[in-house]
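Dear colleagues,

As part of the handover before I leave the project, I'm documenting each prediction I ran so the next person doesn't have to rerun anything. This entry is a single chain, and its sequence is reproduced below.
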Amino acid sequence: MALEYTETYRGYGSYEQGSAVRQPRHRTLPADRPQKRAENGTSAVSVPLTVLGILAAMCILLILVFAHNRLYAVTSEISASRVRLETLQEERDKLAGQYNGMIDYRMIEAEATERLGMTKPNGSQTVYVNLAGADRGEVLHGESMLGSLSGLMKEGFSNLSVYLSAAGT
């Protein structure tokens, strides 16, 4: 064991105000430290622990490889889906253009005038709407309010269960 001396200064400011006191401090040198050795002279780390560490490292490496492969597969699927989405959007735009091109207003006007007997309104015509009739309401179904409400709730829950079962598959 070796002794090392450190100087501590007492005082509040410069070195001259206090007196330096040398105090010994014990320090162990690497040669003084006892080495842990097994009985046969090998290091204290056991062989099973070393094998376990190597196996753990190999498992982590395998997990990383499989995770990377899965990430690559998912990225490829996303890329293919984006290409398909762009193709479908182009097809949608093309079909919308064809649909809009199929609407021929002259043909619609001819059909309305010839077959339905309609005429084009002019500025001298006046249209009257008769609102003199009394307002009234009819009950289309003879069910009570609670009966129709319970039917609506049953239908809503059945639709919800169908939706959830379809989403789960």
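The chain has a mean pLDDT of 77. Residues 46-119 form one domain.

All the best with the project,
I.
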